[in-house]
Amino acid sequence: MPRVAVLRFPGTNCDQETAYMLREVAGVEARVVWHTEYRWRDWDATVVPGGFSYGDYGRAGLLASWSPAARQLREAAENGAPILGICNGFQVLVEAGVLPGALLPNEGGRFVARWLRVRVHSPRGPWLLHVEPGAVLDMPVAHAEGRFYHPAPGELLRSRPWLEYLENPNGSVADVAGLASEDGAVLGLMPHPERAASPLQVPRGRRPGGHPFFTSIGEALRRGW
Amino acid sequence: MTRHRVLAIVAYKPSARDPEGETLADELRRLGYTWVQGIRAGKAFIVEVEAESREEAERLVEEMARETRLFNPAVHTLLVITLA
Hints:
Chain A has helices spanning about 15-25, 70-80, 90-95, 155, 210-220; strands spanning about 5-10, 30-35, 45-50, 85, 100-105, 110-120, 135-145, 145-150, 160-165, 175-180, 185-190. Chain A is globular, with a radius of gyration of 16 Å. Chain A is α/β, with parallel strands linked by helices. Chain B has about 80 residues and is an alpha+beta fold. Chain B contains two helices and three strands. Chain B is elongated, with a radius of gyration of 16 Å. The model of chain B has no long low-confidence stretch (mean pLDDT about 95). Classes of the chains: A alpha/beta (about 220), B alpha+beta (about 80). Chains A and B meet through loops of A and helix 1 of B.
């Protein structure tokens, strides 16, 4: 059975539900791994889950990017290992230099916690195997520092998978909700797929848009990604 | 070697919107401080440094801030000043 690490920093708080969905929906073995004990070669894939690593001190994700795990994540990405960063995990991947850009405080100046829709562009790679181009997914967001910024978004998004907010909650440039590496092996997003992976989690009128992320990684790893 | 107190200020570049600074500036103008042309909010760190000179202390702090990405050069400006 494929083995997936769910990385835990001090202040991470979405690790258990993320591991649960990896087991129940992806059908893989999932373990929560403390950041100082994480070695990327021990795992078939890694998820950096949501929360408030190091209390968001300095900036969200900054202090986690000083952990030895950040070097492991950079090395894993260079070697094409699948990595998913959710919310604070996305912030960690950006601060660690695994994904480009920056995540700034929301333009509205407030924490946003709500369901919304994202459109998936150029899906490929192990996390988006079961997602059609242009698919619209329902997921919740919950963050204070989710405003994606990059000086040249047009060029940045031309050749990679990315997610677009249909209702931008934070002032992200080009309505970016998430983006991947060119081959899709590394994906980071602000919405929470692990909170939308089962019909039981989903309010009336919404669909579980997080479900395909988990079925995708399960199948990708079983096929020998 | 002497002890220096070095102030490091991380603020947003003009290219990145800064809702905190913009809101403060708007509200201050509303209160009658019409000469407020703009505010950039940021974060300040006072670093206690052991170094030969003020210049050396500032250089150390600036280097550390660059190496650790205490500020992100893509979106932030960094201002380093030694306090008396």
